[in-house]
Amino acid sequence: MSRDPANSARASRRALGVALLSGAAGAAVVLISAGQTWGEGNAQGGGAELPVTASGSAVSGLPSALALVGLAALVAVFAVRGTGRVVVASVLALSGAGALGSALLGAGDTEALDRAAAEMLGITDVAVTSISHTGWPWFSALGGLLLLCAGLLALSYGRQWPSMSSRYERNGRRAGRRGGDPERPEDIWRALDRGEDPT
């Protein structure tokens, strides 16, 4: 049983829209989450006690780096065709999976708080107590999941999506056919009939 070409084209267009939205939103969520507080607590040492926090980028720079790679791959998907598109779509999916995994690993991290406490108090013998974690690592993981979904959609439907280069090549070939040879008299008359200046 053959698939209806119209339904297949609609599914491909829908997948294209979802992939673009999912990839862009996922990268944005990961990058925004990296600047937010992931962990907080109280640093104790040398007779002092101060509140200390750790941002997502302090916990791990990997999610935001992978989000940038994924965003670049999302754009590059439309600049290549064939095997190149499969490779770029795979990079997009892998960057999403990596951002998701590294965000989940950083959700319970305490080393960044220890480093921040040592820098704040200026001593190495410091303890961090009353540690709590925010929901931002989970938002970052959600962003990674969206990037992963965009990559999987590109792998599934990417061969049917248009590419920038093919559009320009088609336009160039069409313009070449329409223009003809400007030295031939019949082509000059055809150009004049179309309202074009053959010179």
UniProtKB/TrEMBL annotation:
Residues 167-199 are annotated as: Disordered. InterPro entries: Trp_biosyn_TM_oprn/chp (IPR019051), Trp_synth-assoc_CHP (IPR011746). Keywords: Membrane, Transmembrane, Transmembrane helix. It comes from the Bacteria. The chain crosses the membrane at residues 58-79, 86-105, 138-157. Coiled coil: none annotated. This is TIGR02234 family membrane protein.
